[in-house]
Every structure is written in C-alpha cells, then in structure tokens.
Design goal:
Layout lengths: L7 H7 L15 E5 L2 E4 H17 L7 H25 L5 H15 L3 H10 L4 H23 L6 H15 L4 E10 L6 H19 L4 H8 L10 E6 L5 H7 L7 E7 L2 E11 L5 E12 L7 H17 L4 H8 L3 H4 L4 E5 L6 H9 L9 E3 L2 E14 L1 H31 L2 E4 L4 E4 L7
Antiparallel strand pairs: 1-2, 1-11, 3-4, 3-6, 5-6, 7-8, 7-10, 9-10, 11-12
Helix pairs in contact: 1-2, 2-3, 3-6, 6-15, 7-15
C-alpha cells in the first residue's frame, strides 16, 4: 500500500468522485464518456471545490476557471481509466485495507479520527465521501503499480554502478580502524602449497566468525607487517590504506570480517574494528532447526501436535537426536535431509508465528509445538550472530533509486498509452476522441 505523504486536502484532490459513487441530483449531467464509464458534472464540481480549498490552505494562486476546469477534467479521465484497469485486474480495496490506509494517513498527519471528521465537515465534505475517494485513489494506484512494474527492467550492472557512486559519496572523510592477517605464499610456491594456504585462510575466517580473537590469530598466524601488533593498523581513511585494503572495504561497517582474498603475496583477512563518520547497518541472523508436521484428512491438529510433543520429550530426554527426529518426521524435505537445519537467516524471512518463536526463545531451547500456515512445528535456535549489512543496504538503496526513477518514467508512458487508446467523448463540446487524439475537446 502506498504511503500517504500528501496533505489531507491533497488526498481529497487525488480521489475526486467518479460516476460509480456520485449521487446524481436533479441538476446533474454527464459531461464526459470514458470508454464504458462516465464523468458527471458533480464530479467536476467536487474536485474544483477541493482544489480551491487546498490552494487557499497553501496560499496558492490558481488559473481562471476555464483552464482549471480543463485540468480537473483531464485528472478525472486519467483516474477513471486507471480504475477501469483495476476492475479488469479484479482489484478490490476492502474496508479493512481502507481503514489501515486512513489510520496510516492520520499518523503521518498527526491527527485523530474525530479531528479528521471535524475538518471534513468544516469543508462541506462527508466522511463517507472521503472514504470512497480514498478507496478510488488506492485502487488507481494499485492498478498503475501492477502495470508499470511489468515494464521495468533493472540490470545488476546498473545497481552496482549506482551503488559504487553512493559509496564514494558516503565514504568521503570516513575513517576505519582495521586489523589484518596475511597468510604468505611465495611466488615460486607449488599448487599444493597455495591450496594449503587458501584452506588455512578460510579456516581462520570461519573461526573469526565464530568469535575467535583476531589479535591472537594475527600473533599466531599472520606474516603481515603488523603481526606483532596483533594485526592492528589503527585509524586510516580509505585513501591512506594499502590498495588491497581499500578495494575490499567498500561500504562494510564495524565488526565486518572481510576475506580471505588473494594478492600477489598471499591471502588476506581484514577486520573493521570501528569506524568514524560511517553509518552502518547491522542485522541479527539466527541459525535454527525445526520439525514440521502437516495435518491431513487422516492426521488432525490434535494428533499432529501430540506427535511433536512426543518427539520433543524424546529429544530433551536424550532418547533421540533432533536430526534423527527431523529426518523421520519432518514434512519439510529441504531441511529434513539436513537434520532440520534451516541455515543462517534473518527472522524476517519466516512467517509471523515462526519469526516470533526464533526471535524470542533462548539459544538451545526447543519450543513447544506451535502452528503456522504450513502446519505444526517445533523449533530450536542453534545460534545467533550480528552481521554487517551496510553494503547490502547501499545496494538496496541504489535499487530503490533506480526503481523509483524508472517507475516515474514508465508510469507517464503507460498513462499516455492508456489515454491514447481510450474512447473519450466530451459531451459538453460534442467531440469524441478514440485511439490517439488528446481528448481535450
């Protein structure tokens, strides 16, 4: 659902009434035919009123009535076309979704519902009309989003290039406190020696990620220039570092273990002990394992829950291992073959009930049986770790920038195509537009 950032009256402007919701009066008349729908004079009058109220609220001057009316007509045509698309897609905004959008808007506007009702009443707008106008705005927005998303293609190279630019901007003036381990490999070393050095470097990284002391590892294994200082290089800006450091650090944040990576003199591991002037992103990952039992016509909820309770008791009593129970019982084939292990993930990837369990139970504790949309589970958190996600966050920001840029471009193109392919007849000027004209009458 879109975020409601516009002003209250601005929202009203975007959601002016169409014929589906307008209440015809004795003086009402059809002004414009849009494919198989119509725009009424009351629709235009309602939007004109809202635009004028909004302009007055912002001390904004408006053009003369003729020009403003043409702008309002065009806005209503575009909105009607999008709502017609939504009907084709089967998009329906129910009351719950509408209430959520209104509540979100109220929070952003720092208003209460009674205050909203009072403000609407003072402007001569009923709350029920406001709800339906907002429903149409959301409906049009969702139809537009569905169609425009299909037209957007973002290449990985585009994301990487923009992320690199963002990193350069973000890293200006940033200082890093780094430590370093070098596993030396002589130029004339044979293949076996090189492979042994690589495996040693990978083993050290694994131990470091499990909490081993970096300085102790540097004293013990490093052949680098700072080995006798525990590998510590101290504070440096990127431009002051050895090139092999600067090329690898990029947007990594505090606590990141980088490597192993190779140079002409061997394999290297870097740790960022601290940063100055860098906004970092850190997330908690959970390593969990579970057993899933699905209900069926022959296995009731109660039976599935009881089966897991018995398995849990046997595991806790030491009569059965978690891995054996998972392989025998779990209906999740991907994890069952691996003893129920799900690997390292952030809890957000799981369904709400499962996410809640892995976030709240203690390490090493096997949960009571609980139900999700997938079935009944027991889960154990094997470990937790904090992981630097600064680089991923920068790439995500780059993707969002590219998406927003392309969405705006493609949305305009799609709306123009939609407008050009529509049958539009302006009854007040007896002109019709079908497939290509601008429809301004």
């Amino acid at each position: 659902m879109k975020k409601w950032k516009s002003s209250l009256l601005g929202l009203m402007m975007f959601g002016a009434a169409t014929s589906s919701f307008a209440a015809p009066t004795e003086m009402d008349k059809v002004v414009t035919i849009v494919n198989d729908g119509v725009i009424l004079q009351s629709d235009i009058d309602a939007m004109l009123k809202t635009v004028r109220l909004n302009a007055a609220d912002q001390n904004q001057a408006l053009p003369d009535t003729t020009v403003l009316t043409e702008q309002v007509k065009e806005k209503l045509i575009i909105e009607a076309l999008q709502i017609q698309q939504a009907e084709q897609f089967g998009i329906r905004i129910d009351d719950n979704k509408l209430d959520q959008a209104i509540q979100q808007m109220l929070q952003q506007q720092k208003m209460t519902l009674p205050q909203l009702r009072q403000k609407l009443a003072a402007s001569g707008i009923s709350y029920s009309m406001f709800r339906e106008q907002m429903r149409r705005d959301i409906t049009a927005s969702e139809a537009r989003t569905i169609q425009v998303r299909r037209r957007i293609n973002i290449l990985p190279q585009e994301v990487d290039a923009l992320a690199e630019q963002l990193n350069k901007q973000n890293l200006q003036g940033v200082q890093y406190n780094v430590s370093h381990i070098q596993i030396r490999v002589d130029d004339d070393a044979d293949k076996a020696t090189r492979e042994e050095a690589e495996q040693q470097a990978k083993s050290l990284v694994k131990q470091l990620n499990q909490g081993a002391d970096f300085a102790n590892m540097a004293y013990t294994y490093s052949k680098g220039p700072k080995a006798l200082q525990g590998g510590k290089w101290g504070w440096m800006r990127q431009e002051e570092m050895p090139t092999i450091f600067a090329d690898q650090i990029k947007a990594h944040g505090k606590g990141a273990i980088i490597g192993p990576f190779r140079s002409g003199i061997g394999y290297h591991i870097i740790k960022i002990n601290d940063t100055k002037g860098l906004e970092t992103v850190s997330v908690t990952e959970v390593k969990a394992r579970h057993i899933l039992v699905k209900t069926s016509v022959i296995l009731s909820d109660e039976a599935a829950k009881r089966q897991l309770e018995q398995a849990r008791q046997a595991i806790m009593a030491g009569d059965r291992s978690f891995a054996d129970a998972a392989q025998a019982l779990s209906a999740d084939p991907g994890s069952a073959a691996n003893g129920g292990e799900l690997g390292w993930h952030t809890p957000d990837i799981y369904v709400p009930e499962f996410k809640d369990k892995v976030e709240t139970i203690s390490k090493g504790v096997i949960s009571e049986p609980f139900k999700t949309v997938h079935g009944w589970h027991i889960v154990e958190v094997m470990d937790r770790r904090n992981v630097d996600r600064t680089d991923a966050a920068v790439k995500n920001r780059a993707y969002q920038i590219l998406f927003s840029r392309k969405f705006n471009e493609e949305a305009q193109a799609w709306l123009q195509e939609l407008r050009a392919g529509a049958y539009i007849e302006q009854l007040d000027s007896n002109t019709a537009d079908q497939g290509g004209a601008n429809g301004q009458g």
